[in-house]
Amino acid sequence: MEEPGPAPELSLRCTSRFPEVRLRELRPWLARLLASQGAAGASLGVLFTGDRTIRRLNREYRGKDAATDVLSFHGDETPEGPHLGDLALSVPAARRQAAARGYDARREIRLLLLHGVLHLLGYDHERDEGEMERLERGLRRRWIDG
């Protein structure tokens, strides 16, 4: 039997009190997701925040003066090992999107985390002719809908 790789180092932080963000549930879920994608030993940072902060980050780093749902910032190799990168996720945007789609905000948060992780792993739905979308659909069935 193959030994599992090193556990990822996860830094999860909330800028406000968001009842949908359950770090005790998200931490092991994210660790398993990363391991399933070959990133078990990498570190990952996630900031759960509001629209104002995500809009500022979007403006500063992407030149887009608008709130968005999730931003991905690629990491690099560090003395401690590989840093996959950092995600910033707008919980209010997740709430709105979940309401519009008729499901729970906790599910939308996981969908956004999955989407962001795929970007950090190098996938780009704007340029890859559907590769990321196909992979994301399959991973949704296993990690969110399953």
Largest sheet: 5 strands, mixed
β-sheet strand percentage: 15-25%
Cα-to-Cα separation, first versus last residue: 25 Å
Order of helices and strands: EHEHEEEHHH
Classification by helices and strands: alpha/beta
Assembly classification? single chain
* Low-confidence residue ranges: none
- What is the rounded Rg? 15 Å
Shape verdict: globular
Mean pLDDT: 91
Total E-strand runs: 5
Number of continuous helical runs: 5
Helical coverage, percent range: 40-55%
Could you explain the architecture of this structure?
The chain is α/β, with parallel strands linked by helices and 146 residues long. It has helices at 23-36, 51-62, 91-101, 105-120, 131-145; strands at residues 9-14, 43-49, 70-74, 77-78, 81-90. Strands 1, 2, 3, 4 and 5 form a 5-stranded mixed beta sheet that branches. A hairpin with a 2-residue loop joins β4 (77-78) and β5. The model has no long low-confidence stretch (mean pLDDT 91).
Summarize the structure.
With 146 residues, this protein is of the alpha/beta class.
Blueprint of the fold:
Elements: E1 9-14, H1 23-36, E2 43-49, H2 51-62, E3 70-74, E4 77-78, E5 81-90, H3 91-101, H4 105-120, H5 131-145
Parallel strand pairs: 1-2, 2-5
Antiparallel strand pairs: 3-5, 4-5
Helix pairs in contact: 1-4, 3-4, 4-5
Tag the structure with descriptive keywords.
single chain; 146 residues; alpha/beta; 5 helices; 5 strands; 47% helix
